[in-house]
Known about the structure:
Blueprint: H1 2-18, H2 21-40, H3 44-57, H4 59-71
Helix pairs in contact: 1-4, 2-3, 3-4
Amino acid sequence: MQKLDDSFTKKMWAYYRILTPHQQKELADRVNRLDLAIKINPDPEFIIESVEQFFEDYPIVKNCLKELNKIY
């Protein structure tokens, strides 16, 4: 499991490094807002809608998660 988590982290870190500082801040802000929103409203439909929108904006995250899911 740790090796797979490391793979995900490496891919995401490589993606993050190629972003501009503004894009890096934007991505971090989106992740934080998404995390807070889900904590405030744990309704499954809300979570699905929120995460789907995030994946549309950041497909690299979805692709990395799909790779992990295929292995498990």
